[in-house]
């Protein structure tokens, strides 16, 4: 698997979109009507997803738990209660399912649950994918890559940033072997502790 994206928790989505546009990033909402997220894409490598929370009603979370999706609900709940800043990391593969990755989690004694997801973005692209959330919240969540590639080609943001050069992910060192087995992306650096740090790649010259 490769790095998929990092979630940036913001205070208010519309305000954050304008703030990051003012910083020279090209930012697009996840969908045209009633968007719940916004994206900062790069031509290659991981992207950034801006969220001000899951916006999932409590009743829906209860229903998901009843349907055996408790690990997903726990991750959404953490998103709703965590502080501002980078708060979640996702890995992606290029298959149609996540069976291999679920088997790796099971080998390491970690249960998980998953579900399909879909959205029509602001360009009319039908983006379909599957997600899996490990029950261990100190392990990144997993997804298949989008059915249609939404990333721009040969694009550099107006501020000169061409991509993400490195993501530092803090977790329990006991998780390092599992995470390295799941993800072989050389942009990923693991450290003991908590938190996520992002370093950008700027256009040369």
Automatic annotation (TrEMBL):
Q: What sequence ranges are listed for the domain Glyoxalase-like?
A: 3-174
Q: Which Pfam families match?
A: Glyoxalase_3 (PF13468)
Protein name per its UniProtKB record: Glyoxalase-like domain-containing protein
Q: Which organism is it from?
A: Slackia heliotrinireducens (strain ATCC 29202 / DSM 20476 / NCTC 11029 / RHS 1)
